[in-house]
Design goal:
Elements lengths: L2 E14 L2 E14 L3 E5 L6 H8 L7 E6 L2 E2 L5 H11 E4 L11 H11 L4 H14 L15 H13 L5 E5 L7 H17 L4 E4 L3 H4 L4 E6 L2 E7 L5 H14 L9
Parallel strand pairs: 3-8, 3-9, 6-7, 7-8
Antiparallel strand pairs: 1-2, 1-4, 4-5, 9-10
Helix pairs in contact: 3-4, 3-5, 5-6
Length: 255
């Protein structure tokens, strides 16, 4: 399959010579186009650092990261913002919506920045909002809608530019169990219907069970990998719980 993301021998250090912390320790993996991959691990395992490096928010200490065959470690700081805007979509735990903009305007913001035509922006926003079931709240402001609706708006904003890969950081973390289930089912639907490539960091085993594959990270290294394959989601969920137990059970595993 076509590899949209390749991580090669990536390492990330923090600190100075006297006190060096290795947050990422020689990690390599790849993600195929259209794949839904989860990253799990205990607090402090390095999963958020890994996501920050892939998202170009942070820099690697060594190794290479390729998105659609473009080496992120060779992009100049001057060009990195443009690359991020055109190729990456982001879903954050705390939504990161602008309260002074309507839901429609929040979703459209990335297209506006990229200077799309107004008619094209409007039709794209309506189409993605329809997919996520928020077409009827487009004229409202974030403070007028529920947490689940805010997160669906954030998903729409991440997908509106048709990015090479969507990076999701605990997308269900701030939601109640019902809203979280609705959201992860929608994300899973968008992954299949739109062939969106998604890399998601999560602590939640139930949320992770919707993925095609899970990478477990411990102490900055890949501890193991699970592939859903032909298993049912319930079977995959139970496999995830088994690995969580091996990791010490400090990942949330109950919903």
């Amino acid at each position: 399959m076509d590899k949209i993301l390749k991580i090669e021998n990536v390492e990330k250090y923090y600190g100075n010579k006297g006190n060096v912390v290795k947050a990422i320790d020689d990690i390599s993996f790849d993600v195929s186009r259209g794949e839904f991959v989860g990253v799990m691990g205990p607090s402090g395992s390095g999963k958020t650092t890994l996501l920050n490096i892939i998202s170009t928010i942070d820099e690697v200490s060594s190794g290479h990261i390729y998105i659609d065959n473009k080496d992120l470690t060779e992009i100049s700081k001057k060009e990195i913002a443009k690359f991020r805007r055109r190729n990456l979509g982001f879903i954050f735990q705390d939504f990161n919506l602008l309260d002074t903009l309507t839901i429609h305007e929040n979703i459209a913001l990335a297209l506006t920045i990229n200077r799309f035509k107004k008619t094209e922006i409007n039709s794209n926003v309506i189409n993605v909002a329809r997919e996520l079931g928020i077409e009827d709240i487009l004229s409202k402001y974030p403070y007028e809608v529920s947490g689940g609706e805010k997160q669906r708006c954030a998903c729409a904003r991440a997908l509106i530019t048709n990015p090479k890969i969507v990076l999701a950081d605990e997308p269900t973390g701030a939601l109640d169990s019902k809203s979280a289930q609705i959201l992860i089912e929608m994300i899973s639907h968008l992954n299949k219907a739109l062939e969106a490539t998604i890399l998601m960091v999560t602590h939640d085993s139930f949320t992770a069970s919707y993925c095609d594959r899970i990478l477990f990270i411990k102490d900055g290294k890949i501890f193991t990998e699970l592939v859903k394959g032909q298993n049912t989601r319930k079977q995959f969920f139970n496999q995830i719980l088994d690995v969580v137990a091996l990791l010490g059970g400090d990942i949330r595993d109950v919903r």
